[in-house]
Every structure is written in C-alpha cells, then in structure tokens.
Amino acid sequence: MLEAEFARAVQDRFHDSAFNEWFGTELVRFGDGEIEVALVLKDHHLNPGGIIHGGVIASLLDIAIGLALRTRLSVEFAHVTTQLHINYLKPCRSGRVTAIGKALHQGRRTGYGEATLTDDRDRVLARASGSFLIFPMSEISLLGSHSDAPPEA
User: Fold this and answer.
1) How many other CB atoms are there within 10 angstroms of residue 100's CB atom?
2) Predicted TM-score of the model (pTM)
3) For the chain, which residues make up each domain, given as ranges?
4) 3-class DSSP state for residue 51?
5) Tell me: domain 4-139, CATH 3.40.50.2300, correct?
6) pLDDT digits over 60-99, tens only?
7) Which residues contact 107 (CB under 8 A, 6 or more apart)?
C-alpha cells in the first residue's frame, strides 16, 4: 500500500505532465508496482490507415511501465527508459484503450517492467517490456536541459 503523501506525489506528477495532458492520457488506478492508464482514441491518435498509431501504443506502454516503477521509487529518485520492446498484436480503430503496467524488478540503478494494452472489448492489442535507468534526482542535470535543445522552428 502506498503512503498517502507518496500516492499524491505520483498523481501530481502524472497530472502535471504537459505530455499526458496533450496526449489525453487518463490515470485510472495505481498501487504498489502496478498502474492502469487509458486513452480515448481520437483522429490524431490514428495512422494514415485509420488504426491506432504504433507510436501511440509505444507511448501508452512506456507510460504504464514507467509509472508502475515510479510507485516503487522514493521521491529522491528519477528514472528514464533505456529499452522498450513491443509486440504489436492487433489493430484498433476507435474506442478506449487501456494499458496496465507492472514493475517486476527495481534495483539500485535499474528497473524492469511489463505492460499490456487492451481495447474496450478486452482484446490484447500489444504487450511490452521495458528497462529503466534509476538515478538520484540530484543527477538529473546530467541529462541536459531545455537550453541544450535546438530552437523551435
């Protein structure tokens, strides 16, 4: 069971994310090492063929695994994805998709988890596994800053 203060920090981190707001991701539920996120598909989530874009699937699975791992880390630590392996299994054209992520390993410097994406008929659309680098928040500046990025056109 997550402590209330830590649970609030996980929720705040999710809801404060400009990416999650822009993407349309919904935090459905979370607990110790497990998370569920959902997305109602809109036209901009589809590829030119009219099915959910592979990048949308990858993002949802990465979010699910990363947040599941986040529930196991203290607030003094951060994590970044180092590897994401995805098996795309079925297409989906519309409706609500749900990703359930599970943190399966959390060491001092690495983490590992898996996630499954289903549609609103409970069909498995994709499965993923991911590895993460875990590091103290004090080292986050080593990743660079927005000022390192090229100017926007």
Assistant:
1) 20
2) 0.88
3) 4-139
4) coil
5) no
6) 999 999 999 999 998 889 999 999 999 999 999 999 999 9
7) 134
